[in-house]
Task: structure prediction
Amino acid sequence: MNNKITTFPKDSAYFLEQNVSFATWQQQVRFYRDIFITRAETTWLLFTEDSYTFSLYFFALIAANKRIVLPPNGQPEQLKQCMESADIFLGSFADNSDKTITKSVNRFELVEPADKANVVNTSNHKLELRLDSDIVFFTSGSSGQSKAINKSFHQLILEVELLEKTFGNRLDALSDGSLKAIVMATVSHQHIYGLLFKLLWPIWSGRHLHLSAFSYPEHLVQQIISYQQSEHARRKICLISSPAYYHRLLSDNVLVQVKEQFSVLFSSGGPLHAEAAIELKSSLTTPVEVFGSTETGGIAWRQRAAIDDVYNVRMIMMSNN
Result:
């Protein structure tokens, strides 16, 4: 096979909220790829708050050999700035968008089908993905001015494969991987942490995904309880979250009532206070703190054993645990 082309290594990912199998999801991706591939525009600004829709568009654009620009949010000024690096905008604006700005953005008016679940491209061929496709991330920047960071799809996949090698055996209920974890999150897919951990990794490794972000722990608990009462009761939960979210749990950790469901808590995007790490270790499970940046990707991780445990940091590139 062309060394610039890859395909999905697993076909067992399942989208729980949508009740969509990997096979159906991949057919939907092909449907959008066939639309995007006919367009002359090469660089596409992609933003939508809906993670499932984002996953379809993202992989369809990769398959169509398009360059993707990812803004950190959907605010009009942010989109206007990012559009300077793109030919066309795909997705939806934030609810409070300034109409005078959004009207000036060259937007692809994609007519969505009434029933997306029945939109399929019935080809049985594996979806081919371009490893050399470019993805441009825009960071917020310390000065307030966004900075463009270029990555190739190949770089992202190498990082996903490294995440599986480093952490994969921690996620699932059974050591043979036959009972895949449910990956849930409180973070956005528009940033590299959320894109990798919440979306690309579970799809690539064939796990179950619950893609809606949980702003409030109470809502997360309710959803986990509903899974406990379903055919997914034996599946473990892998939570992708941020230090800010974990810090808020210190005053009232409602997740304790479902603590047995958690296999891994991931934290990234900022420093996790030692007190929060130790409290989570006591009440739920020891969080995995991942260090890195948009530029470098993940470079190291740790799990604190005590308040003063600041040196127990392992390089991701060197770890097989």
Observations:
- The mean pLDDT is 89.
- Residues 153-171 form the longest helix (19 residues).
